[in-house]
Amino acid sequence: MIEIKNLKKYYENRLILEVADLNFSKGKIYSILGRNGAGKSTLLKILGGILSYDEGNLRYDKDNVILSTQEPLFFKGNVIYNLTEPFRLRDLKIESDKMTSLLNKFQIENLKEALVSTLSGGEKAKVQFIRTVLYNKKILLLDEPTASMDKKSTYLVEKILTELRDMGSLIILVTHDYEQAVRISNCIYEVDEGKIIQRGT
Fold first, then answer.
1. Domain span at 97
2. 3-state helix/strand/coil string of the chain
3. pLDDT tens-place string over residues 8-24
4. pTM above 0.90, yes or no
5. Do the Cβ atoms of 116 and 126 come closer than 8 Å?
6. Is the pLDDT of residue 145 over 70?
7. Partners of 17 in the β-ladder
8. Each residue's pLDDT tens digit, 27-55
9. How many Cα atoms sit within 13 Å of 142 on the Cβ side?
10. 91: burial class by Cβ within 10 Å (0-12, 13-18, 19+)?
11. CA-to-CA distance for 192 and 174, rounded, in angstroms?
12. How many whole angstroms from its chain centre is CA 57?
């Protein structure tokens, strides 16, 4: 669970995010909608621990969180290196069978030796999503994970996310795709001028 109370974030003395009282529960998918610059990614980065907040309280298990940013972040090298090196650096076990299964599902198994710099936007998004899932964290924070993907891959991501939710994961998804939010979410929020409004369940 994530508990937020009176959280505020300022930028150059301007209030850019204000969340009065909000809880996210495990075993649910939450979608966050809103125009560019409304504060969606700011909230996700605060929850992911890469951006500080200025006021308020935030309670959750920080060690069980994985953040997938909108722009994929990779090491120089090939796909397989980028799927294994983050785990080696942290002395974490890599589930090779699961990785191979996901590569096959997304039909990019043949790209294992390809340099990430040569991949298309959709292929990079797939690699980043696979790596995110391989961390096996119980809280997933995803910023536009399917924005560059084709429909088939988008539906596969949605299927995997609903399966993770049903196994008890808490998933917060920033998306511009309202139909996607309707398809998979337990609750939909909209961020407008830094404030969060519940839009539907």
1. 2-200
2. CEEEEEEEEEECCEEEEEEEEEEECCCEEEEEECCCCCCHHHHHHHHCCCCCCCEEEEECCHHHEEEECCCCCCCCCEHHHHHHHHHHHCCCCCCHHHHHHHHHHCCCHHHCCCEHHHCCHHHHHHHHHHHHHHCCCCEEEEECCCCCCCHHHHHHHHHHHHHHHHCCCEEEEECCCHHHHHHHCCEEEEEECCEEEEEEC
3. 999 888 899 999 899 99
4. yes
5. no
6. yes
7. 9
8. 999 999 988 777 888 999 999 999 999 99
9. 30
10. exposed
11. 13
12. 22
Q: What are phi and psi of 78, to 5 degrees?
A: -95, 180
Tokens read off for 6: 């009176």
Percent of the chain with pLDDT over 70: 99
- pLDDT at 201 > cutoff 70: no
Say how far apart CA 161 and CA 170 lie, in whole Å: 10
Q: How many CB atoms lie within 10 A of CB 152?
A: 9
Question: Domain count of the chain?
Answer: 1
CATH number at residue 191: 3.40.50.300
Tokens 């808490």, residue?
Answer: 170
Q: Which amino acid is at 184?
A: I
User: What residue type is assigned to position 84 of the chain?
Assistant: T
* Per-residue model confidence as pLDDT tens digits over 157-190: 999 999 999 999 999 999 999 999 999 999 999 9
